Amino acid sequence: MRGDELKTVKKLVPFICIAAIFAVFLFSFVKDMYSEKTLYGFACGSEVKITVSGAKNGDKIAQKAIDEINRVDSYVLSDTKKTSAVYILNEQNEYDDRSGELLEYIQKCSEMVSKCDKMTLLSKPLTDIWAISDGGRIPSSAQLADAVKAADMKNLSVSGSKITLSNGGKISFGAFGKGACCESAVNVLKNGNAKGAVVTVGGTVGVFGDSGKGESFTVGVRDPFKNAGEYFATVDVNDCYLSTSGDYEKYFEKDGKRYCHIFDAETGLPADNGVTSVTVISKGGTESDFLSTAMFILGEGGIDLAKRENAEFIIVKKDKSVIISKSLEGKFKLADGDFSVSSV
Amino acid sequence: MKSGKIQKLTVTALFTSLSVVLSALESFLPSFAILPPGAKPGFSNIIVMFSAMSLGVPQTLFIVCAKAFFAFLTRGAVAGLMSLAGGLLSGVCMLITLGKLKMTGCIGAGVLSAVCHNTGQLIVSFFTVGSSAVFGYAPVMLIASVATGVVTGAILRAALPYFKGLEKLFSKEMER
Amino acid sequence: MRRLVTRADVIIITAVILLAAFLWVLNPKETGETAVIRVDGKEYITVNINGELTETTVNGVSIVYGGGDIYIKDSTCRDKICVKAGRLSKQGQSAVCAPNRVSVEIKGKSKNAPWAVTG
Description:
The complex is a heterotrimer.
Chain A: H1 2-34, E1 36-43, E2 46-53, H2 58-77, H3 85-92, E3 94-96, H4 101-113, H5 124-130, H6 141-150, E4 156-159, E5 162-165, H7 177-191, E6 196-201, E7 204-209, E8 217-222, E9 231-237, E10 240-246, E11 251-254, E12 257-260, E13 275-282, H8 285-298, H9 303-308, E14 312-317, E15 321-324, E16 332-334, E17 340-343
Parallel strand pairs in A: 15-17
Antiparallel strand pairs in A: 1-2, 2-6, 3-5, 4-5, 6-7, 7-10, 8-9, 9-16, 10-13, 11-12, 13-14, 14-15
Helix pairs in contact in A: 2-7, 7-8
Chain B: H1 3-28, H2 44-54, H3 57-75, H4 77-101, H5 106-129, H6 138-169
Chain C: H1 7-26, E1 34-39, E2 42-48, E3 54-58, E4 61-66, E5 69-75, H2 81-84, E6 94-97, E7 102-106, E8 116-118
Antiparallel strand pairs in C: 1-2, 1-7, 3-4, 4-5, 6-7
């Protein structure tokens, strides 16, 4: 009887081993196929999050994309890092951009700025006098007038590879940098053969490809009245960029009034028109970043601009009413019943 | 009353107390280093398995319920409920596999019994804790069940010769 | 006499192990009860936010967790956006101190959670 049992066990040992090995292989394969790799970093003054799906070496590609964001931020666009071209240009009022990378960004952004009178690429004089990141202070009207003059786009000139600043004008890519970095990271991921990815650089999210869960990616829209990471609605999108500009994170309050970090280039004052956040969805990251900022300044008046640029938008007003573009109907889902939605 | 019936009643009572004692003793044991927290060897499952094999349906269910009642008295309502759910699930499973189908050996029965017992407990803790987090514990629980099931199954197999005398009492129900 | 091991037993054990492996692959190991603290994008520590009140300082950011939530109490940065983020207790909530490159996020990903949040 005992020998009989031993025989049965012996017979079954190879079967168990093969089954176990098969199981391990199968599951590691399945896991790799469906697992997303998520990497984090810091650039453009905010957190960067990259999730790559459907790629076996997703973490390596994601790291490359983070490195690229760091490079663009640290060596080209940052106005606080001493290594960047913009920092040197702001310090010396002159910069010979032989690589042409900064020039390309300046041209692209200048062209966008020309579509909105209340926007400028030379916004640094304004952010400097309001000093939001230092706790904030209200400037005198003389200071304000000087800053508005300095922020005029006329103070930026380009001839050949030479960029020149005059009359105290200083470049800041605050309204473009995150979108631009997001775009360059997405390009790195696409070139690295990632099947799908989600790139978050501060308020800008870029998505493309296969999410592994259907045709589109569900992206949350931050609830301006709640903590970071909480959303009041979601949109189902793909192959596009989403940027949000709002007054709920970078601001200071004085005498019961909120002063946010986005300024009207014509008046030098913080945008204040009943809007608390604007999300723009468009085909380019730099563009969505620019449009969300411009629309935040323009308020509901910015709807025309968005329509001209074929961008979709979600405007959240301080009274919790929400305006979305018609084309978002069906893709936009409210997660919080407190908000009332209308579309135009 | 026939003597066979009285004998059966006596054995059931004996086994009920044995399973209660085993589960009580188990709770006094220091937690096993190799097992994840909360996992127990489940020695009282041995009694339930034997009961399912040779005593019969009402007897097995009685043992399970008595054990749950003991847990309810000593460790509170939640523990009682968990013991009842786990015990009933594994008891019914044993009655089917050991009592009816008779295809499994001792080790397989031990593993099945442990898996059912732990699944029942997990379901109860899902409803009482109200968090789906408990299901994250399921894979660990399954592997632990295999380990403890093999041990209890082996013990059952080792103990069977000593139960032989008892089995003879109910020889009509025993073919093997 | 009953046998110790039969063919059915091996199938049962294999099935249970396969099921365990399958559940392990499917199950996200994170739940709403833990928070991850990252420094420079790399995971620094994962903490249980339901435990005792504990304070820890990373890169000039002092973080308090326990009793059901986690929050950044103070930071050496100038804008204090991270402190304004307040108490975090729900999945997905986060506080980021960009100047000090520290972030805190409540772990866990429920099935219908979005891929990212813009804003």
